[in-house]
Amino acid sequence: MEILWFGQACFLLRSKNAWIVTDPYNDQYGLKVPKNLKADVVTVSHEHFDHNNIEAVLGTSLERPFVINGPGEYEINNIEIVGLPSFHDNQKGNLRGKNTIYIFHLEEMVVCHLGDLGHTLADDQVEELNQVDILLVPVGGTYTIDAKKAMEVINQIDPKIVIPMHYQIEGLSTHLPLDGLDKFLKEIGADENPQDLLKISKNELPEERRVVILQKRG
């Protein structure tokens, strides 16, 4: 399996059975997803324009990608995907509405995309996420959890690999006031050693927690 990052909460998960794109955005804040981005499945964590630009993603065949935009259990191309309800803020959605956490079962591994999670997890959510191998977690604050809250969530889930997302990077408009990666790296005690993509199989998962920093593609 390969994981590529396009900035914000947008990833491409490339597995043997399907290609999945998460939270494609429009270009209002300066970043652009590649013009030739293709997928079998597109997931949308919430209906904000910087997470739901499904028209930016082409199908891998002549058909449009299958779109998942809410909680539920799905099976596409023999891949199990589970959407869990959560909130975009720490006031039960009263500020920014709902958010969907997605769990992907890919090549005998479990990948979790937290979307724009705005709170630490309840006990029932932790129970649902107790088998996660790879966690895609927002760390930029303001609209999501910040570095400190991200650490709390990481410790709740206890994944083998942590990939931060939704933080300030070059090219992203300062009108989107996000923290940089440095605050999270200091909190988790890791160095910034970015890599182009993560290519991994089940037998390559680390024994101890590993932080992977991905370079923005495109």
Description:
The chain has 218 residues and is mostly beta strands. The protein has one domain: Ribonuclease Z/Hydroxyacylglutathione hydrolase-like (Metallo-beta-lactamase, Chain A), CATH 3.60.15.10. The chain has 3 helices and 15 strands. Strands 8-9-10-11-12-13-15 form a 7-stranded mixed β-sheet, covered by helices on one side. Helix 2 (147-157) packs across helix 3 (181-188). The longest helix has 11 residues, at 147-157. The model has no long low-confidence stretch (mean pLDDT 93).
State the main characteristics:
Metallo-beta-lactamase, Chain A, mainly beta, 218 residues, single chain
Domain unit count: 1
In the CATH hierarchy, the third-tier topology is known as Metallo-beta-lactamase, Chain A
Please give the CATH architecture. 4-Layer Sandwich
Shape: globular
The value of Rg in angstroms is: 16 Å
Per DSSP, the total helix count is 3
Please trace the helix and strand order, writing H or E for each element: EEEEEEEEEEEHEHEHEE
Structural class assignment: mainly beta
Mean pLDDT: 93
Portion of residues within helices = 10-25%
Strand adjacency order, main sheet: 8-9-10-11-12-13-15
Which homologous superfamily in CATH is the superfamily? Ribonuclease Z/Hydroxyacylglutathione hydrolase-like
Would you identify the regions where 5 or more consecutive residues have pLDDT less than 50?
none
Ends apart, CA distance between termini: 19 Å
Identify the CATH class: Alpha Beta
Range of strand content = 25-35%
How many β-strands, per DSSP?
Answer: 15
Tell me the major beta sheet: 7 strands, mixed
